[in-house]
Design brief:
The protein is mainly beta. The chain is built from 3 helices and 12 strands; from the N terminus they run E-E-H-E-E-E-E-E-E-E-E-H-E-H-E. The termini are far apart.
C-alpha cells in the first residue's frame, strides 16, 4: 500500500509534494502521463530532490522517432529494462552516433547534445534520470501530453497541437529541433 498526497500538479499522487520525506511507490503507481504513443511514469521529481534530479520510466510500442530535441542545462540517462531502443545523439561538435540499446544497456546524453530515440520493439521500457543545475523536466510530459489516471499505453497517440511545441517545452528545458536531420540510419 502507498499513501496518496494532493500536490499542486494532481488531485492524488503517491509522490509527496515536499522534499526531505522518505517514501515508497509500488510499480506503476507514480504520476503517469501519455505523450505520443508512450506511457511516462514519474517516481521522483524536482519537488522531492530540491531540483537536483528526476527518476521516471517511459514505456511504449514499436514506433516513430521521438522528435529531436536538446536540454541546455540537463544531462539525461537512458537505461533500457525491456525491449530495444535506438538512441540517436549528436555531440556539441556535430558528430552523430546511434546505438541500439537492449535490456541492461545504458546511454548518457550530456546537456546541449541533440538527441532522439525510437522504440524498436513492442513493450520497450526506458528508465530515465535527468539532472542538472537548471532543475528537472518531469512535469514536461503531462503538460505537453496528457495526465493519465489509468495504467497502460494510450488508446490513441497523444500528439500535441503544433503551437504547444513552441510554448510548453521552454519552461522545462526542452527545445525541439524539427528541422534536424540524422545522417545515421
Amino acid at each position: 500500500m502507498t499513501i496518496e498526497y494532493a500536490t499542486r500538479h494532481r488531485r492524488a499522487s503517491h509522490i509527496p509534494p515536499e522534499p526531505g520525506r522518505p517514501y515508497f511507490i509500488e510499480k506503476g503507481e507514480g504520476d503517469r502521463a501519455h505523450l505520443f504513443g508512450d506511457l511516462i511514469t514519474v517516481y521522483a521529481g524536482g519537488e522531492q530532490t530540491e531540483n537536483t534530479f528526476n527518476f521516471f520510466t517511459v514505456e511504449g510500442p514499436k514506433g516513430d522517432l521521438i522528435p529531436t530535441h536538446l536540454h541546455a542545462h540537463t544531462h539525461e540517462v537512458f537505461y533500457v529494462t525491456q525491449g530495444a531502443v535506438r538512441l540517436f545523439v549528436e555531440d556539441t561538435e556535430g558528430s552523430q552516433q546511434e546505438k541500439l540499446l537492449t535490456p541492461g544497456d545504458f546511454g548518457f546524453v550530456p546537456k546541449n547534445c541533440r538527441h532522439a530515440y525510437r522504440m524498436e520493439r513492442h513493450h520497450s521500457q526506458i528508465v530515465g534520470v535527468a539532472a542538472g543545475p537548471g532543475g528537472t523536466f518531469e512535469r514536461f510530459f503531462e503538460n505537453l501530453g496528457a495526465p493519465a489516471e489509468r495504467h497502460g499505453l494510450p488508446q490513441a497517440p497523444v500528439v500535441p497541437e503544433p503551437g504547444r511545441f513552441a510554448t510548453v517545452p521552454e519552461q522545462f528545458d526542452v527545445r525541439f529541433l524539427p528541422d534536424h536531420q540524422w545522417r545515421t540510419r
